[in-house]
Write the structure tokens for this entry.
Amino acid sequence: MEREIAHEEFRKFLKRGDGRITFERFEILDYTMEFEGHFDADELYVKMRSNLANVSRATVYNTLELLAQCDLLSKRNFGENKTRYESNVGKKNHDHLICTTCGAIREFSHPQIRKIVEQISGNTGFEASGYSFNIFGKCGNPNCKQNKNG
């Protein structure tokens, strides 16, 4: 069900912007919804090519930007100087704990954070459309190793 809803949202978005509706774009959407955790464009491209998907690197990059504009993906920066993505389809708002040693990323939610965002926005007359809250530190895992991806 979520897949069909996401496809319909993306189709409407592309039509509004006179974007081309192609099989490759929807295949990329499907892969983003199936990807576990956070990924960058190259990781998605490699995964798709290893599964014999016939898609170009440029199409992956361009489509990820369209999916983020359409709000089906969130763009994230975890301090590693590259953009990571995660699917918004079927997910609740959440925040991140990022280990600066091994790169592990753990998601969490806390109702107070949302309340603080709403309070600050309301007090300043700012109309928030979203927020991103990341906590950087050390994960405390005894097996934590330098340069491991999360």
Remarks:
- The chain has two domains: 2-87, 95-137.
